[in-house]
Specification:
The chain is an all-alpha fold and 295 residues long. The chain has 17 helices and 4 strands. The protein has one domain. It has helices at 2-11, 19-36, 40-46, 54-59, 63-71, 73-76, 87-93, 96-125, 138-144, 147-151, 158-163, 166-192, 199-213, 216-223, 230-240, 242-246, 261-283, and strands at 50-51, 130-131, 289-290, 293-294. It has a two-stranded parallel ribbon with strand order 1-2. It has a two-stranded antiparallel ribbon with strand order 3-4. A hairpin with a 2-residue loop joins β3 and β4 (293-294). α1 crosses α8 (96-125) and α8 packs antiparallel against α17. The protein is globular. The two termini are 25 Å apart. This is ABC-2 family transporter protein. The chain crosses the membrane at residues 21-46, 66-92, 104-125, 173-194, 201-223, 261-280. Keywords: Membrane, Transmembrane, Transmembrane helix.
Length: 295
Amino acid sequence: MRQIKAVIQYNFMGFYKKPKVILTFLLGFILCFLLSSRIMPVIQAYKSPVQMLEPFLWTFGDTTAILLSSVLLLLLFSDLPVLSAITPYYLCRTTKKRWLFGQLFYVAAVSGIYTVFMLGATMILCAKVGYPGNIWSNTAAMLAYSKLGEDLNVPSTVKVMESVTPYGCTAQVILLLFLYILCLSFIVLAGNLLPGKNRGLVAGLLFCLYGFLLEPKVLRVLLGFEEYEMFRVNVLIGWISPLSHASYGRHNFGYDRLPTVWQSCVVFLILLGVLIWFCGRRMKYYHFVFLGEKD
């Protein structure tokens, strides 16, 4: 564990000074500002304070917001695994397996930091109208009973408000978002362990494109389905689309056949297990390149 910890610590050296890290988090904050701007008029229209976590729930209740926020990580993780002049030293003092686990824990830690950052950004942007109490606001109740909440993809339906508190709902949304981002990050890492250049970036883009094409509205346009034909399609997409698994509003709250939040977590964990196994297999054949020579 000390060797794995040393690899993680070295990967984090100068982390917040790297231009791509600064750019990623800056773009993430700008994205939160643009996404939250669509719900601010609603908050101002009702002239009622909101629970401080509700803007995050309303912003990332939309699959488009989840997709856009995760795509930014392609820039951050484009150079995985992290290689530097000191990497040969770690490979000599430890094993490929331990070095790989250091990379995996590093990716998980960065994904967690990024997820919490997105939460903090929305809280800061809406701090003036927020309160910390663990109770749904009147604005959330109004959205739950109106069509406006459905149009905004706000996950504050009556069923949700009766079964879970804002803090509990936020914990589930953060967990789903984190697992989706972690899967995307591990896919980039697994792709970069394949022969050739930029395989990880291509794999990450294909993963995002797969989720986008399985968006019900997009699929309906592509296949020319009518509204009444979309019920079974929506249920199927809910099970096979990772982006749908990451969206809190696309889950079963007791009245449909969509997956529950915990079933989606199991799906993500299975996918993560497959990716970790694949990375471990690829490490046996991965050729490290330093100063133009292979080691």
